[in-house]
Amino acid sequence: MSKNLILILGVLFLLSLGCRQSEVHNKQQQNSSKVSDTKQSATYTIEPFVKDLEVPWSIVFTGDSRILVNERPGRLRVIENGVLRKEPLREFKDISSGSEEGLMGLALDPDYNSNKLIYLSYAYEKSGELLVKVVRFKDNGSSISEETIIFDGIPAEKYHAGCRLRFGPDKKLYITTGDAGERKYAQDLNKLHGKILRINGDGTIPSDNPFPNSPVWSYGHRNPQGIDWYPGTDVMWSTEHGPSGFDGPGGGDEVNVIVKGQNYGWPEVSHTDSKEGMVSPLLVFTPAVAPASGMFYKSGKIAEFKNTFLFGCLKGEGIMVVTVDPNDPTKQLSFRKIADTYGRIRDITEGPDGNIYFSSSNKDGRGNEQDGDDKIYRIVVKQ
Predict the structure, then answer these.
(1) Is 224 helix (H, G, I), strand (E, B) or coil?
(2) Model confidence at 383, in pLDDT bands (50, 70, 90)?
(3) Is 149 part of any domain?
(4) Spatial strand order in the sheet of 345-350
């Protein structure tokens, strides 16, 4: 056998060995992914629920089989028995929907079953200024009526516009506001930028708010999003977008425990920085995951999620699950990410059936659109 032939055979052998090693490496990666999927599917599965939405921002159940969904461009949609009604319940014409602003928050009155009142927040333009208002309507089933502006003049911008709505266990309405690009005002108690607000359902200011005649509940926020309360307590958690690079080092997304009247630091501190008189975050995520929502899972139907805090991640493309210390709900024990194959995830909520529902946001201009997007998915017990 010639030296040249031996050399050629040797090269071919090494190439084939390299290919096999590459195949083994790829299979290990695939198997690792499959192990993760198998572990998830041992207790729950994720299935599509409704498709063909456009940036569904808020999901709220009004009953066992009826859901209201805000689409950011300005449509309030209805899902009944798992079917998306063709015509919107209302299409808002005066809305401003550009980058991050639009039709955003949605909440039911604590006495919705008897009064049918719903609350929405959306951005609009007034004399060249971008603002957000909170509006109350009566839900008539096939239409909404009795429009009442209960809170107005929240500063907005194409970025950091807030604006989640959630009624607390005290039956007060909490509103998250972004700094609207004016970060210095997050520290100014006379401004509404970068705050969590607390008002009565009629728009008046509760007498027990921390600052006299002020809707401000907490301040020093950049762009808080999801808010919820640990089951059976008044312990409030919130998620918040950290700096994007232009206003500070990228990352620094936060999970906070919100305490009445406290200062959460922005823009004086961010990431893991600390300063006397300012509350440090419970969790910090760098690189950014862009937390867009937040809820405590109260049902025991999917046992592994009971009393955990879950939030959708836009940039992080998944759902973060935070395990809470049952002896002290102001502390977390661990966190992990699930549902990482559906793209950008925005809202997440628990249905009356004990299933978990979440929305994709791949049509918001920053995602990779998948077939049928945007969608609402649900997490159900594995049968």
Answers:
(1) strand
(2) confident
(3) yes
(4) 44-50, 376-381, 356-360, 345-350
CA-based nearest residue to 96, from 165, 156, 40: 156
- Identity of the residue numbered 116: K
Q: What is the mean pLDDT of residues 257-286?
A: 96
Count CA within 13 A, CB hemisphere, residue 113. 2
pLDDT higher than 70, residue 204: yes
**Residue 160's pLDDT is what?**
73
| Parent domain of 257 | 44-381
Q: Average pLDDT of the chain? A: 89
> Is 9 part of any domain?
no
d(CA 82, CA 380): 14
- Residue 34: inside a domain, yes or no? no
Count of domains observed in the chain: 1
Cis bond before residue 364 (omega within 30° of 0): no
d(CA 319, CA 44): 14
Question: 16: part of which helix (H) or strand (E)?
Answer: helix 3-41
71 located within any domain:
yes
pTM, to two decimals: 0.89
Determine the average pLDDT of the residues in 42-68: 97
d(CA 267, CA 221): 8
3-state secondary structure of 335: strand
Please enumerate, as own/partner, the contacts of 357-365 that have beta carbons within 8 Å and a separation of 24 or more: 357/49, 357/59, 357/67, 358/59, 358/312, 358/319, 359/53, 359/56, 359/57, 359/59, 359/69, 359/312, 360/56, 361/55, 361/56, 361/292, 361/314, 363/54, 363/55, 364/55, 364/72, 364/314, 365/99
Checking if the pLDDT of 296 tops 80, the result is yes
- What CATH number is given to the structural domain containing 320? 2.120.10.30
